[in-house]
């Protein structure tokens, strides 16, 4: 644990600008600070795109499969696979370094209304509905008082095979425990290739299904492959989404809320690699 003290001290400085200057210092022990920040949006003017882009980015991590690799896995697939032991090591590093998990509503209120965030905020997200995100991912997050965001590909719900996927009951449990359930299309179709019919099959129907499972509104979306098409971004808002997540490419200057950046935590990373990747990738503002 001692080897992360230096990391924590450095990161506290790097992320200090996420906090209002007159804010009281957060208590280090408050690692369960994941409740949504309530903002009086009636009396607070929403920020414009330029203001949102100028706010310091909050680190957002992306995970896919949490399992050991096999001989049949391609070299490319290794970026999307992290061993369970390594995932646990990385979550321990975040906890030891003083990070606090946040959820999309908190990030939205920070970006749009300037709401206060916990000290050293970070968002932990999972794509594609893999069951190991529930059995390994969720159990590990619980250990450290973290919450996660699960982007569900609805075609896979309940499927079993070479890769097992989460059931409706597991998705409901994640939601009931305070995690966020969000959309990742029906069958992972590339957003840039959407036809008119896809807005129903890839967006509206998955949203309805997830809302039926959780009993809660689904207002967040992650693009398959991290790929978006600028000309279609306004349609996501029309279909009920407050924010959407890409990967590490540049944000759209007109729709920064619909192109929030994430980075993948590759299975080859050590905890130290991840720590420095977080700070290198998100320690910047755009004027």
TrEMBL record:
Gene Ontology cellular component terms for the protein in this record: extracellular region
Signal peptide residue numbers: 1-23
Main localization, broad class: secreted
Highest taxon listed in the record's lineage: Bacteria
NodB homology domain ranges (all copies): 120-287
Molecular-function annotations in GO: hydrolase activity, acting on carbon-nitrogen (but not peptide) bonds
Protein name: Polysaccharide deacetylase
Keywords carried by this UniProt record: Signal
SUPFAM superfamilies with a match to the protein in the record: Glycoside hydrolase/deacetylase
One GO term of the biological process aspect: carbohydrate metabolic process
Subcellular locations according to the entry: Secreted
């Amino acid at each position: 644990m001692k080897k992360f003290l230096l990391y924590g001290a450095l990161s506290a400085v790097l992320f200090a600008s996420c906090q209002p200057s007159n804010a009281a210092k957060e208590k280090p022990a408050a690692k369960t600070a994941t409740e949504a920040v309530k903002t009086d949006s009636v009396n607070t003017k929403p920020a414009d795109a330029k203001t949102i882009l100028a706010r310091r980015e909050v680190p957002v991590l992306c995970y896919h499969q949490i399992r050991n690799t096999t001989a049949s896995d391609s070299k490319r697939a290794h970026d999307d696979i992290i061993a369970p032991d390594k995932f646990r090591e990385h979550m321990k590093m975040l906890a030891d370094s003083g990070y606090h998990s946040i959820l999309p509503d908190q990030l939205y209120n920070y970006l749009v209304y300037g709401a206060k965030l916990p000290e050293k905020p970070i968002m932990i997200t999972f794509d594609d509905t893999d069951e190991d995100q529930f059995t390994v991912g969720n159990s590990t997050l619980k250990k450290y008082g973290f919450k996660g965001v699960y982007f569900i590909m609805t075609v896979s719900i309940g499927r079993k095979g070479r890769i097992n996927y989460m059931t409706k009951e597991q998705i409901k449990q994640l939601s009931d425990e305070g995690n966020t359930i969000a959309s990742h299309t029906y069958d992972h179709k590339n957003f840039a290739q959407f036809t008119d019919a896809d807005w129903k099959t890839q967006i509206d129907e998955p949203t309805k299904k997830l809302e039926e499972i959780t009993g809660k509104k689904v207002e967040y979306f992650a693009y398959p492959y991290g790929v978006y098409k600028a000309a279609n971004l306004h349609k996501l808002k029309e279909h009920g989404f407050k924010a959407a997540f890409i990967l590490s490419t540049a944000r759209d200057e007109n729709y920064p809320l619909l192109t929030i950046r994430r980075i993948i935590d590759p299975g080859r990373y050590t905890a130290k690699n991840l720590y420095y990747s977080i700070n290198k990738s998100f320690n910047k503002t755009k004027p």
